[in-house]
Amino acid sequence: MSENSTAARPSLRERKREQTWHAIHEAAARLALAHDQLADVSVDTIAEQANISQRTFFNYFGSKEDAILGQRPPEIDDELAAGFVLEEGDDLVEKVAFLLISVFRDATAGSGPEQRRALMRKHDVLVRKGMAHVEDVRHLVQDLVVDRLAEQPRWRGSPDLDDAAQLVILTASAVMRVAVPKLINASDPAEETVIVRGLTHIFQEVTRPTP
Could you tell me the pTM of the whole model? Predict the structure, then answer.
């Protein structure tokens, strides 16, 4: 085994932490689906089902709603940020759409799309919680987009920089929203790339001036 392979392997502590995270989420989601009222699902009950203490619960999740949906605070690590570089000829909307999808997936590492939708259909409050989570992802990505645009001569020092970044984020979010149902059935990263690029091309076509 190579040195790099050994370094990439999660430690025992990390694996145990991940197992506990999933145990809490699975218990919370199961209870939420079994009850008609979310008020009937308590942190104490979730903790009991996951065989942990209430204190441990709050070491992993900020609320029972986050545990039910399997939501982590969104983050962009140094590697992902370093890989997001704007180069000549890049389609910025497409590039940001891929970044949004990546950050959202990492921050929503619990329920699969079908279960997530089932939970939201059953409990309206989870819809609002999920939407707030998406907004957190958007704001995080927007900060990085502002930084990268500020490095470009066209936008460096421009008073329109923040507006430009927001417009890119909103447009890429629309592409992502249309892409998500299609990505559920994607079997490999290459297929995902085709889907997002295809939708970006459609966006370019519909926004082209009418001849």
Answer: 0.79
Same domain, 97 and 182: yes
Per-residue pLDDT reduced to its tens digit, 45-102: 999 999 999 999 999 999 999 999 999 999 999 999 999 999 888 889 999 998 998 8
Shared domain for 107 and 173, answered yes or no, is yes
Give domain status of residue 211, yes or no. Answer: no
Domain that holds residue 145: 78-206
Q: Does the CA dihedral 84-86-89-94 come out positive or negative?
A: positive
State whether 85 and 48 are in the same domain: no
* Helix residue ranges, H only, the chain: 3-8, 12-34, 43-49, 54-60, 64-69, 78-83, 92-107, 113-122, 124-149, 161-183, 189-206
How many domains would you assign to the chain? 2
Long-range contacts of 113-118 (CB under 8 A, 24+ apart): 113/180, 113/184, 114/184, 115/29, 116/69, 116/70, 118/33
